[in-house]
Write a structure and sequence with these properties.
- The complex is a heterodimer of chains A (241) and B (230).
- Chain A has 3 helices and 14 strands.
- Chain A has 241 residues and is mainly β.
- In chain A, strands 2, 3, 4, 5, 8, 9, 10, 11 and 12 form a 9-stranded mixed beta sheet that branches.
- In chain A, a hairpin with a 2-residue loop joins strand 13 and strand 14.
- The relative contact order of chain A is 0.23.
- Chain B is mainly beta and 230 residues long.
- Classes of the chains: A mainly beta (241), B mainly beta (230).
- At the A-B interface, helix 1, strand 1, helix 2, strand 3 and strand 9 of A face helix 1, strand 5 and strand 10 of B.
Chain lengths: 241, 230
């Protein structure tokens, strides 16, 4: 039974808990240091999902909430990429979930009251399971930017929220995918919780003309990297390779 | 100069935002889209063990409930086995041991039904083979605990995300009727400040003939919950 741990989380790459320019973090950030754990079976395992859990239409946000014969309004895009680990290995068979505002910047949520209209044919969420190469894709519409009160007048860049599991609870990750060329990225207090420019750049999906569907959808490539796993010296054998 | 290491770097975390329900619990956001939403049934119908409910509220640094939080739970079954190929043993048909928990949007109250997990095998210390006597239970003053020796007390792993939480917070629920196991638990013992350990221990009670554990989570301030870097 392998007990190989995952590489420690690089806390200099992730946002710290307290980021005063993103005001909501001020009262929601622990003040005590995290207690560092050696991983046990509680951390190296995690939930397993299969194709029975989801339906093939789930990754098509243009159609998964639309009436028959209709589709969501907006710039049609493909968001695709691979889920890899820090060793560069594909993470196969893992659940990827996505959610976003519609093309006008409005979320379908009972607590969103932004004046942009709801699109009756757009729910705003999708999910898929990576293939044996770690590959996934979503078909959707490009989300709109929207205003929010942080400072008096902030605007979120267009973004898609992404949730990824990996194979262990310690790899669990939620992040946001932004889009190449968006001038709002550099102004966003939530983006700027990330301490390095390299880290920010890794959240910006690249325009990928090779993956467009001609006369149908433009494409963006968004690879996701989860924590890698050690090769562990265990009873004089290397495990995890 | 030296050779360049070719590891990739982990994708940075971003807050789940206030509308996390759209993606992970769309019914709560107010619409029905999937054939079935994931995470509503943690234990399934066939799980052995005591049926329990765990309830609480997440409280922010101002003392107010966090009403837009989403919690994921990950636990072993009553025999201490996780529904994962790397956990030794079998779980009952339909037991996934994972669930999603959301709050009442008006009050911040949350709760989930499950079975009480069993003790979980500790990891063996790297390179030492079978279980061994503890070298320094509780750790030395540089945090170098020997965590390998004792089984872990029954616990549920939690991962907490919300607007304003930049990276998911990991913590554990232990149970106050497991005092003996808790006293030996290698993770609880790792917490140098003994007065912080009770923040991880749920209080057992009963309501309408059902076992209900209370577990409030304080993100900040007095009695701040212990969170882990796992």
């Amino acid at each position: 039974m392998s007990q190989a741990e995952f590489y420690q989380r690089d806390r200099e790459r992730h946002p710290p808990a307290l980021t005063p320019d993103y005001k909501t973090s001020v009262a929601r950030s622990p003040r005590n240091a995290l207690i560092s754990l050696q991983q046990s079976v509680s951390e190296i395992t995690g939930p397993v999902f299969g194709h029975n859990d989801i339906d093939p239409i789930d990754n098509d946000l243009i159609h998964n909430y639309a009436k028959a014969g209709e589709s969501a309004i907006g710039e049609r895009i493909i968001v695709h990429g691979r889920v890899l680990d820090e060793n560069g290995r594909p993470v196969a068979g893992t659940l990827v979930e996505a959610w976003q505002a519609n093309a006008g910047g409005r979320y379908r949520h009972k607590k969103d009251t932004y004046l942009a209209p709801i699109d009756p044919n757009f729910g705003g969420c999708g999910r898929t399971i990576t293939d044996e190469n770690g590959y996934y894709f979503f078909r959707t519409v490009k989300p709109g930017a929207y205003p929010w009160r942080n400072w008096v007048n902030n605007w979120r860049p267009a973004h898609i929220h992404m949730s990824i599991f990996g194979t262990s609870f310690s790899q669990r990750l939620i992040t946001q995918c932004y889009f190449e060329g968006d001038p709002l990225i550099a102004k966003c207090p939530i983006v700027k919780t990330i301490p390095t420019q390299d880290g920010i750049d890794s959240l910006v999906a690249a325009l990928d003309l090779n993956a467009t569907i001609p006369l149908d959808s433009i494409a963006y490539k968004f690879d996701i990297v989860l924590r890698g796993r050690r090769s562990t010296l265990f009873e004089n054998r290397l495990e995890g390779n | 100069m030296a050779q360049k290491l070719d590891y990739l770097k982990e994708t940075p975390s971003q807050t789940a935002g206030p509308y996390v329900h759209i993606g992970l619990a769309p019914g709560a956001a107010g619409f029905d889209i999937y054939r079935s939403e994931l995470g509503w049934d943690i234990a399934g119908p066939n799980a052995a063990g005591e049926r329990i409910r765990v309830e609480g509220v997440v409280i922010d640094g101002t003392g107010n409930p966090v009403k837009d939080v989403l919690i994921e739970a990950w636990q072993a079954n009553a025999s201490g086995v996780y529904a994962h190929p790397e956990s030794e043993g079998e779980v009952e048909d339909g037991f996934r041991g994972w669930g999603r928990v959301i709050t009442d949007f008006e009050t911040g109250d949350w709760g989930f039904d499950t079975v009480k997990p069993g003790q979980v095998k500790a990891r063996r210390k790297l390179g030492t083979g079978p279980l061994h006597e503890p070298a320094n239970a509780g750790g030395d003053w540089l945090g170098r605990a020997d965590e390998a020796h004792e089984d872990m007390a029954p616990h549920i792993n939690l991962w907490i995300v919300a607007r304003g939480i930049n990276i998911g917070l990991n913590t554990r629920v232990y149970f106050d009727d497991e005092a003996e196991a808790n006293a030996k638990d290698p993770v609880l013992n790792l917490i140098e400040w003994q007065n912080r350990r009770p923040t991880l221990i749920a209080k057992r009670g009963e309501r309408d003939g059902k076992v209900v554990y209370r577990f409030d989570i304080r993100l900040q301030g007095e009695n701040e919950t212990v969170f882990f870097d796992i």
